[in-house]
Amino acid sequence: MPFEWMAPLMFVALVVVLLLGYPVAFSLGAVGLGFALIGMQYGHINLGLLQNIPLRIFDTMQNQLLLAVPFFTFMGLVLERSGMAEDLLDTLGQLFGSVRGGLAYAVILVGALLAATTGIVAASVIAMGLISLPIMLRYGYSTRLATGVIAASGTLAQIIPPSLVLIVMADQLGVSVGDMYRAAFVPGFMLTGLYVFYVLLLTLLRPQVAPALPLEARPYSGYERGALLGLLSYVVLALVPWGLTLWGWSNTALLDLVLLLAGVGLSFYLYVRNPLFARVLRVMIPPLVLIFLVLGTVFLGVATPTEGGAMGAVGALLLALLRGRLTKDVLVQAMRETAKLTSFVVFILVGSRIFSLVFYGVDGDLWVEHLLAGLPGGQLGFLILVNLFVFFLAFFLDYFEIAFIILPLLVPAIRALDINPVYFGVLLGVNLQTSFMHPPFGFALFYLRSVAPPSVKTVDIYWGAVPFILIQLLMVGLLLIFPGIVLRSLGPA
Length: 493
Description:
The protein is mostly helical. The protein is built from 23 helices and no strands. About 45% of the residues are buried.
């Protein structure tokens, strides 16, 4: 067999084995070892190459970065059972209940908050499906809008830090997880804003699909406007320093003190006068503190992502303890599921190390680089083709499998085309959200189907996902056209 055929045949063999339904981890390892034996038979590979396999595996086991995976998984699973999602959905549902689409807005915002605390799609979708879907259907929401907004909001855990897929992609691309988190923050919340805008547009054009809650379902009727204005005032106070810099005025410590005192005074006044605002404040503080423990310490450079994950796990335990939800069963279930997911990730990583070692040994990296670097359109042509490829591949593979199989093959082409790897990782992270939403194999749709009432038809869940898939693809297009959305957060090169 000619040496030039080895890399293409190896790639084709992997695709065939995966389509036959064999487990990904074992498929990667078996194809790698099989082609290593073929290569030795034809004199293309030296036995010394295979002696590097134990070194690659031990190097994987010693990777401190991957410790963040079990920490964040454990944190998310404990929080799922702590009752935080129920409180957030109920409270924000009351806050927005007086406006059309209010429950949908609440689901989107809670999805973003859960994404920033749990980082697990399944936990977010199941929690919101159990709590919000029956209420939305009871008060006349369109089945397709209700299921679509829940599934899409749950997938925000893919792109909003501390996303597990961002950790894995940072490891595969050889970049800092902190940089990946910083770069993904703005696109994640832009996508949240696009979901809100879609619901707003839909309620303006078709008010009947998302009616406001009736008066008898709003025990805090009359307090919603004051609570909303109070929360908006926090946003105004936070934007004052930024606005002053636009006018050329410098920010001072005195100004920061004045703004802080104004925020505290406003909080105290509204806490006493507005019971809904008081409830919102009580419910929002624990997740916001947890977000600061996890993401704030990483962004400030105080902790590594692994240390941030450890603090988040401890914070989740304390939160569950304070709520009286920390039982032996909760701990056992969380540890069992954490062990399962971590083992899944490690086995795929070991298989991918074996595959990539042999693939590089037959110059597969050069084959992929020559194949992709010569595409018309340069960087943009490459990015468009890769995103289309990943979009269709996500019909059959989940995000971990794509990150471990496809990313290592693309790294040489990324370097040859001088594409920022952090930008590339965030772009793929947004695209990979669609892997959870693809009818008929999207995992978010399966999670929602498992907890949805029997009256909800599966076809409605599929059709409800379609507008949100289009919004996710629109976000991919915005990042392709305006890469500065991501790159600006990384600072000067």
